[in-house]
């Protein structure tokens, strides 16, 4: 039996409370997204994730990937999974019907993505990156490129990969050296090497469509001189059939701490000076174009954190209910009981659960904001939604992935010594999760983005609007949640105060702001998480009173929200101290002072 079951009741409730579900059909593009359709999609996706994909997770971890000749070989079970993904049309859910998609909300597609990520994180990186590549092509490519590449990419017959990083040019993308030389026929000759390319090559699909950042001759230095190019592994003929292999190949695959089933490739373009690519969008606008894909990927990586955390939590609960050890504290009987009866194990499990549900609420709201930003018929609503999506993206990515590492680590802890043994599977979740705070922009970069860009956008009106929304909601908190209202109000006030301090720093205080970025991001995320869980608990309590829904589930929502506010929120609000302290002490050492020798 698999140790993962898609949490459909939780997913649907989160869609209702923070994912905008009741508003979907009011958007002209989403008129078909009825509650019946959504329920059917989630149920079928849950079956696929739980029954077909989840059992392949450990197999992928054990078999890994390998380079054979010029081809990256993945575990055989991944081919079965990918074929099912293609046949089910899962990649087409949110794609525009103009490119053979179903035109449903990206928020719904994200729910499916969460389940696939829980089931097998390594495999899930493939369709996630493909979706990001599609978004970049649709946003910036020519109509010919969209028609030629997007339908097969959305179906999964072809996949997509993002090629930014080079040796010596990681987070500082402006230092990249890959080149693109224009040709008389309108194409370009691409030459360079990229590292850490997730699913850059593999054997589960017919073609890989690379989006590559490179420099044109005489391009300006730094990020202002970067362009984006579409480079297929196999060239595509005019009739859509595949032609000759392009001059692009994988020269090695990385041996990693986790996500063993996901090929992380070193890709070489133009070894024979014959790599053909086509520019996407305008010259020297590649970073702007790539950020379309990067922002999609950043929220997606937050979702990866949510997915692996949910899997780790479910495994820990199963073990805690089965593992018998020690007598129950306070009981007369000295007979050993399941460890789930012990208070500290309960604390761990509740911490895992509360973080997961806060992250899910935040990420679903983030996706719905992105949907509105793209599809709302109202211009002002689109603008407001885009600002909210911009603000929430670094929170979703940083909180979702930091949370995943903590939750996966706690999952190992629940298993005790057996958690450190690979055969239980708890260690895999811990290993897999550890990459998530690093890639698609480290969480330190997410925090800098929050304080350096998002805090100052439009004079700070967007974070002020979110804080005002939270403050104005407080009077609606009633019944069992009323006892938590004061703690939540205090946390919102602390966040407001910290935000004003950093906002006022200006350029003169930029070092202090940078030093405070990570604790501020954690504070902001935790307060938003507490607020969204409170909203869910209020809905749950009113449904309980109306005898509307599953009483056990609804009561659990209330308990989880109260636990988050009582146990998780207070340490987060204490971060206001480090935030206000500035960077003096952390910058006091000279570089050599860090040496112990």
Structure overview:
The structure is a single chain. The protein has 597 residues and is an alpha+beta fold. It has a domain at 443-592. Helices cover 54% and strands 12% of the residues. The protein is built from 17 helices and 14 strands. It has helices at 8-17, 35-53, 57-63, 76-87, 106-119, 121-140, 143-155, 286-322, 343-375, 379-415, 426-433, 443-454, 461-473, 485-505, 510-545, 551-573, 576-581; strands at residues 66-68, 71-73, 158-163, 179-182, 188-198, 207-214, 227-232, 234-236, 242-245, 248-253, 264-269, 276-279, 324-327, 336-338. Strands 3, 4, 5, 6, 7, 10, 11 and 12 form an eight-stranded mixed sheet that branches. Helix 12 (443-454) crosses helix 15 (510-545). The longest helix is centred in the middle third of the chain and has 37 residues, at 286-322. It is globular, with a radius of gyration of 24 Å. The N and C termini lie far apart (53 Å). The mean pLDDT is 95.
Brief account:
The chain has helices at 8-17, 35-53, 57-63, 76-87, 106-119, 121-140, 143-155, 286-322, 343-375, 379-415, 426-433, 443-454, 461-473, 485-505, 510-545, 551-573, 576-581; strands at residues 66-68, 71-73, 158-163, 179-182, 188-198, 207-214, 227-232, 234-236, 242-245, 248-253, 264-269, 276-279, 324-327, 336-338. It is α+β, with helices and mostly antiparallel strands and 597 residues long.
Describe the structure using short key phrases.
single chain; 597 residues; alpha+beta; two-stranded antiparallel sheet; 17 helices; 14 strands; 12% strand; globular
What structural category characterises the helix and strand content?
alpha+beta
**Average pLDDT, to the nearest integer?**
95
- Which blocks of ≥5 consecutive residues have pLDDT under 50? none
For the largest beta-sheet, the strand count, sense and barrel status come to:
8 strands, mixed
């Amino acid at each position: 039996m698999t140790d993962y079951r898609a949490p459909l009741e939780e997913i649907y409730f989160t869609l209702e409370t923070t994912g905008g579900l009741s508003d979907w059909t009011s958007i002209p593009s989403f008129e078909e997204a009825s509650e019946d359709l959504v329920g059917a999609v989630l149920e079928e996706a849950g079956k696929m994730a739980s029954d077909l994909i989840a059992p392949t997770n450990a197999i992928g971890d054990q078999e890994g990937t390998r380079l054979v000749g010029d081809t990256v070989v993945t575990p055989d079970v991944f081919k079965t999974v990918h074929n099912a993904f293609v046949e089910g049309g899962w990649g087409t859910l949110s794609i525009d019907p103009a490119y053979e998609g179903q035109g449903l909300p990206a928020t719904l597609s994200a729910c499916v993505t969460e389940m696939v990520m829980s089931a097998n994180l390594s495999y899930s990186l493939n369709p996630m990156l493909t979706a990001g590549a599609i978004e970049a092509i649709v946003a910036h490519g020519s109509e010919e490129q969209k028609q030629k590449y997007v339908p097969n990419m959305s179906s999964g017959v072809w996949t997509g990969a993002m090629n930014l990083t080079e040796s010596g040019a990681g987070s500082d993308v402006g230092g990249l050296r890959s080149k693109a030389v224009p040709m008389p026929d309108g194409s370009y000759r691409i030459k360079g090497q990229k590292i850490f390319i997730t699913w850059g090559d593999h054997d589960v699909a017919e073609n890989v469509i690379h989006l590559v950042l490179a420099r044109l001759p005489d391009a300006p230095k730094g990020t202002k001189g970067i362009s984006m190019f579409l480079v297929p592994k196999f060239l595509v003929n005019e009739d859509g059939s595949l032609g000759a292999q392009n001059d692009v190949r994988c020269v090695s695959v990385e041996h990693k701490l986790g996500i063993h089933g996901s090929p992380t490739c070193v890709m070489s373009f133009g070894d024979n000076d014959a790599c053909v690519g086509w520019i996407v969008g305008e010259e020297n606008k590649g970073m702007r174009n790539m950020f379309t894909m990067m922002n999609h990927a950043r929220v997606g990586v937050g979702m990866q954190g949510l997915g692996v955390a949910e899997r780790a939590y479910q495994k820990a609960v199963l073990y805690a209910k089965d593992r018998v050890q020690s007598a129950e504290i306070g009981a007369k009987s000295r007979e050993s009981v399941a460890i789930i009866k012990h208070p500290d194990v309960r604390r761990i499990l509740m911490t895992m659960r509360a973080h997961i549900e806060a992250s899910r609420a935040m990420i679903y709201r983030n996706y719905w904001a992105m949907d509105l930003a793209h599809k709302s018929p109202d211009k002002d609503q689109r603008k407001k939604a885009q600002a909210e999506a911009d603000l929430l993206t670094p929170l979703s990515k940083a909180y979702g992935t930091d949370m995943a590492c903590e939750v996966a680590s706690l999952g190992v802890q629940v298993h005790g010594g057996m958690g450190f043994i690979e055969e239980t599977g708890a260690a895999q979740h811990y290993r897999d999760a550890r990459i998530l705070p690093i890639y698609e922009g480290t969480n330190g970069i997410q925090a800098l983005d929050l304080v350096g860009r998002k805090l100052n956008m439009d004079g700070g009106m967007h974070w002020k609007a979110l804080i005002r929304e939270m403050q104005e909601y407080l009077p609606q908190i009633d019944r069992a949640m009323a006892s938590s209202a004061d703690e939540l109000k205090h946390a919102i006030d602390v966040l407001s105060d910290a935000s004003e301090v950093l906002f006022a720093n200006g350029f003169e205080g930029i070092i202090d702001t940078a030093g405070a970025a990570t604790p501020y991001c954690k504070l902001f995320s935790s307060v938003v998480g507490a607020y969204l869980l409170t909203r869910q608990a209020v809905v749950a309590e009113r449904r309980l009173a109306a005898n509307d829904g599953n009483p056990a589930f609804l009561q659990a929502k209330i308990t989880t929200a109260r636990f988050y506010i009582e146990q998780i929120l207070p340490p987060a609000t204490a971060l206001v101290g480090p935030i206000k302290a500035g960077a003096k002490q952390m910058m006091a050492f000279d570089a050599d002072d860090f040496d112990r020798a």
